[in-house]
Specification:
By secondary structure, the protein is mainly alpha-helical. It is 69% helix and 5% strand. It folds into two domains: 61 residues, Arc Repressor Mutant, subunit A, CATH 1.10.10; 123 residues, Tetracycline Repressor, domain 2. A two-stranded antiparallel sheet has the order 1-2. A hairpin with a 5-residue loop joins strand 1 and strand 2. 26% of the residues are buried.
Length: 204
């Protein structure tokens, strides 16, 4: 059941709003505009709350973004965890790429990747946000590297394959899908990219 939070509005009177709905609205603004591109005015308007209410419930803009990023990872990147459970290394890559493709095919969400948008477009004043996004990406990459190392030890990958390099290749592919989707590439073309990448997967 969603939480109902009470925040103090500008005139000191309590104002109730649904914190989950407000956070989901903030996520869409960050996802569309990036961290720096999202102004507090845009955020509060989309969330249906005042600035004092935002600060009282979520903290400052940076704290709000981190909460939005948590929501994004939980709702939109859940496929990354299930990908690690695939029985083969190729299956891991397939789930990762098709998960990223499915996100870009959605007609309900903005195109592109929140992490890519907010890390690439960050200036000096948003270095802390860039560092946060990069740290989360490194953690995800490490999990995939370890999965590919296991696949290699089990004979599922050729001996001459570097698990870390293969992980970087897969991440470059699904981040590239997000960038191209954000620039207007159609879903059919993105799907062909995924099919081509999987067709080139190293055999045993």
């Amino acid at each position: 059941m969603k939480n109902m939070d009470t925040a103090v509005a500008t005139r000191g009177r309590p104002r109730e709003f649904d914190a989950d709905d407000a956070l989901a609205a903030a996520l869409r603004v960050f996802w569309t505009r990036g961290y720096e591109g999202a102004s507090l005015s845009e955020l509060t308007e989309a969330m249906g709350i005042t600035r004092p209410s935002l600060y009282a419930c979520f903290g400052n803009k940076e704290a709000l973004f981190k909460k939005a990023l948590d929501l994004y990872e939980t709702e939109k990147l859940a496929y990354m965890q299930t990908a690690l459970d695939a029985p083969t290394a190729r299956g891991v890559a397939e789930r990762l790429l098709h998960g990223a493709l499915a996100n870009q095919q959605s007609t309900c969400d903005p195109k592109g990747c929140l992490g890519v948008i907010s890390s690439v477009a960050c200036g000096a004043e948003a270095e802390a946000i860039k560092a946060e996004v990069v740290a989360r990406r490194v953690s995800s990459k490490l999990a995939v590297v370890q999965r590919f190392e296991r696949a290699k030890a089990e004979g599922d990958l050729p001996e001459d394959i570097d698990p870390e390099a293969l992980t970087n290749y897969v991440f470059a592919l699904f981040q590239g899908l997000s960038v191209q989707a954000g620039s207007g590439t159609c879903c059919e073309e993105l799907g062909r990219m995924v099919d081509t990448a999987l067709a080139m997967w190293p055999g045993r």
